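Here is one record:
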Amino acid sequence: MKLKAETEKICADAVKDKGEIGGAVNWADLHCHWSEFYRDSEGDSGFRVYIEESAPYNVELQKYISDKLNEAGFINIEIITEW
């Protein structure tokens, strides 16, 4: 999926920019392990990407990835970080 590949590139860029991103991250193994389209029970839809090797509530990393995906043309993206 193009979204997963783009997120992987952004994760690689995040490693280079890690001085600008706070929160707990295992920089040696940061990656996107899954992306998916979703539609909830209320009819809302969008995409989710799951990033491994970061604290679940790393808002700074989530924002960094979300902003970069928006710049690449992806909208309505939910970023989930997990160990």
